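B., you asked whether I could sanity-check this one before it goes into the benchmark set. Here's the sequence:
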Amino acid sequence: MGYSMQQGNSQFHIKKKNFKAGLKAMSEAQVDGQDWEDEGSLLDVLTKLQWEPMLKKNGDIQDLAFQGMKLCDYIEEMFTALAPFVEEGSYIEAVGEDMSHWRWYFDGKTVVEQSPKHIEWE
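And here's what the prediction gave me:
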């Protein structure tokens, strides 16, 4: 089953120098019940978890695109593990099947799920 989700706007950045540490943190947190360090690079693992990394020319992740249909149980674990390696001010907005809106906001240390106070259409 699961809860359908579509990604909205996003600005998600991880520097290439932090990929190994991010992958190690995901493994230590047992994101989706797995030790990810034997599954390839951080880029490989994100792709396996239905998040397509988009890269800058220097190899940094400049954004993520959700490729799945349903919100997975591991998402909080994944973002919590990666949060210390995600650049401050990064975010990913989402809309759920019931039209709920939220975003994951990264402050350079943690991730917080935020809900909008109101939505304006121009």
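One thing to flag: The first helix runs from residue 19 to 28. Otherwise nothing jumped out at me.
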